[in-house]
Each structure stands twice: as structure tokens, then as C-alpha cells.
Amino acid sequence: xxxxxxxxxxANASLLVRGxxxxxxxxxxxxxxxxxxxxxxxxxxxxxxxxxxxxxKVGSLWRRYEGALTNAAGVVTEAAALALDVGRAxxxxxxxxxxxxxxxxxxxxxxxxxxxxGRLAAKxxxxxxxxxxxxxxxxxxxxxxxxxxxxxxxxxxxxxxIGAMLVAPIHAGARLAGVLCLxxxxxxxxxHQDEINTAVHLASAFSAALEFQYHADERHKMQxxxxxxxxxxxxxxxxxxxxxxxLRTDGSVYRANKxxxxxxxxxxxxxxxxxxxxxxxxxxxDTIMGMLQSVDFSGDHFDTRHQRKDGRVIDVEVTSxxxxxxxxxxxFCNHRDIxxxxxxxxxxxxxxxxxxxxxxxxxxxxxxxxxEEIDRATRYGRPLALIMYDIxxxxxxxxxxxxxxxxxxxxTVVDLVNEHLRRVDTHGRWGGEEFMVLLPETSLAxxxxxxxxxCQAIGGQGFDPVGSVTASFGVTLxxxxxxxxxxxKRADEALYRAKNGGRNRVESAVGPATDSVRHNPGANx
Length: 525
Fold this sequence. Notes:
Blueprint: H1 3-9, H2 15-24, H3 28-32, H4 42-61, H5 69-84, E1 88-94, E2 100-108, E3 113-115, E4 119-121, H6 126-133, E5 138-140, H7 153-157, E6 162-172, E7 175-185, H8 193-214, H9 218-231, H10 233-238, E8 243-248, E9 253-256, H11 258-264, H12 268-271, H13 285-294, E10 300-307, E11 313-325, E12 328-337, H14 339-353, H15 363-380, E13 384-391, H16 394-401, H17 403-419, E14 426-431, E15 434-440, H18 444-459, E16 462-463, E17 467-468, E18 471-477, H19 484-500, E19 506-509
Helix pairs in contact: 4-5, 4-8, 5-8, 8-9, 9-14, 16-17
């Protein structure tokens, strides 16, 4: 079903509901909704409206609770109960060993009250915990008889009259940290796909709050703040007051409001004495005069830079349109300070492309760079080496010394490797304790030397309180016929041989077309 059909079938729905369902369900709505009549499916529309109201509730209240995890949990559980029309909604978090689930907040819709506390032990409900460990959405239409949940019947389901459950995983970074549990009070119930999508969305929203708690330093607080800004982007700007200036066609100021004067650090009287080129630092005077003469009633929209009275330069979004007043053409301009937005966009890009723990490229970003380098090396016949390495017995480090010590080992290893890389090299976290190093313009022999050097550096480093740590390395070189998957697979095979060969060593693997790649005599090695 296309957007035009949706608009025809759901003419009474608000634009906000349609926009939200299109974005939140990532296209699922178009495939799922099939009109039952000329007026559509009223039950579906009611569900979507209810879900939209719940998400607006989260959006409007989240900011005040970003620093208090239990309060944030309360916002999400209330929204979840509203969105899915269930009697109970709870957020449960794992302890550090995943030996139990502890209730952070449980909202009872009928009594409109929040309960906190309560614990479920993994040893008492192993099948349920095994299902949660798979990090899948758990939809149980008949909870008392379903294999995953029937063990909960006597102690939890029956006392609370729970007949059906929908459980969505909550993550903190790459780890499963807990679940959002939606509990239907009564008999059996089937959860629709749009409800499942909404539960996943709310669980993801609470993941942001967990990130805030798990990374308490200022840098991670900023990251959590930026995630909040992304979620509330439109509200953030709608509540801002814009600077307004009214200009004559000769560039002088006819009128200006206080917000505009404050933005530039002037008084209102001082702002009235200015010309555009005295504050705009991006366009020269001739260009500005041409823009003033050409702007018409349809207006213009552009980004520029304004220089304040104190010399500081700010990024500004300008919307302008021309109009006649008392027979004179004037240009009405809205000035919005977007300096913070520009900074946030850079930080958001950083969040999307770097690994939070180590600060190197994330798997997605590394894959993008690797694909580009493969294309470049293939097109111009340049050498390209790839190293995959893995920290030996890393699970033992986590199990023995805890995840905090394991995280410190990962960060130290990454720092050691970075010390031996060039600016043109790319270091990325592939997953868990597995990493990749991309070496452009590097022969196989040179890559092996680098890998040996990295192996020795890691093996010779002390890790408090872990002691010594080693790593295994797999090295390969791009062949003429190689693509992304072939190159990565061959590096993985070389790493596998290093592991099987006793670990703390370097192995290489080359493809049949590798020797035909032209090498630059001036390349590394």
C-alpha cells in the first residue's frame, strides 16, 4: 500500500500519526496495513493513535528525567502501558553476572501506581532466562502454558492475573542489560506487529538512559545528552525564539528585535545602526547586495556565519522573504543560531562512526572505509593489506577479573596498536575482542612486520590487575579479483590458523590473484 492509499483510507488520522508510523516502523506500516473497507481499519488506527500518544509522552517528559534512571523507567513504563493497553508494564535489569533480574520500575495501569523492587533468579527460571539471553523479542500469547514462561505461573503469573506477555530486550552499548516486559492482565492476548514495533522503540529509548548511567564521565554524559537531542530535535527548535531583522535593500537595518541584538552582542539601538556586511562574515558586500536585490516574495533559505560584536563567529540559519511596506521593499529575515546544532551534528556523526569504548572506528564505519579502499586499490592497482587480530582468552579475563577490567584491557590494547599505525591506516573494532587494521599502500611483507611488532607490543605490556595478555593476528593482501567478503574471510582464516597454532602469533593467507597486484616501490615495506 502506498502513501496515497494510506491518506485516502485514513483521512481522519492526523499527519503526526502517519509520519510517526512511517518513521518508527521503518516501512512496516505500508506492508502491514490493508484496508478492510473504504474507511480503513478503525482498530488499527486506534492502536496507532494510542501508540503515538505514548511516544509523545516519552518525548515531552524524558528530558527532565535524563539524570534519574528510576524516573526515566517510570516514564517509559507508563508510556508502554498506554501504548499497548496492558495492565502492567515493567523494566527489569540484569545484575552484573546475569544471575537475576531486578525490577527497576513496575507500573500498574489500573491503580496508576509504580512499584519498585522484586527479583527473579535465573536458577529458578532457567528456560525463561535462556530465552531472554537470545536477545529476541519474546511474544507469549498464553503465558501460563507457554514453554518459556509457564515456570513463572505459581510465583508470578497467577498472583498478578497475567495471561500474556511481550518482552523486548534493553541494551547498554553492545550488552543485553535488561528487558521491557508488557503484561496483559486477563486471558490470552495476541500482540500485533505495530505493537511489537512500539515496544522495541520504547525499549530502545530506555537503553539511552542506561548508557547515561553506565558511562558516568562527562564525555559520555554529553553523548547521552546528544541522543536525547536527536529524539527531541523538532521540539527543541520549535521552542526557540528566533532573531528577527527587517532590512532595506541597501543593506541597512530597518528594525531588529532584542533576540537578534542579543545574538550578535549588541544593544537594539546599536543593531539598528548596522549593515548586513558588518555582521555576515561568509558573503562579501557585493554578493550580499545582489542577494538583497534578488530576494522576492517566495523568499530564500540558507546557512551563513555571523560575527558578533566581541569577534566570535556563530553559525546561523537564515530564512528571508521580500515584502512591500509603505511602498518600500523590505526584506524580513529570521536568524536562528545553529552553532550548537553544527557541533551536535559533528558529535552525532562521531557517535555513529566510532566505537564508544575504545574511540576507534565502529564496525559499520570500518566496513565503509574498507569498501572504499578496496575500490581505490583495485582501480589503480595499489597494494592493500588487512590485519585481523583477536585478544587471546579474553572471556577468561572478563570471568576472572570482571567486565571493567576487560574494558580496560581492550582500551590499552587499542592504544598500543594506535601507537604503531600511520595516519593513513584505519583501526576498527570488529566485534567484542576482535579488531581490524587496514593498511593502504602496504605489501604483505610489510604488513607481516607490522603485525609481528603489534603482537610483541601487546605481549610485552603489563595489564593491572590482569597481568600479561596476548593476541593472535591474521594478515592478508588484496588480490585483483577480491571483494569485501573474500578479503575479510581470508583475514579471518589466517587469524583462525594463528589461534589453532598456539595463539600469540601471526599467520598470513593470500589469494590466487594476489601476486598479480602491482606494488608501488615507495609503498610501506
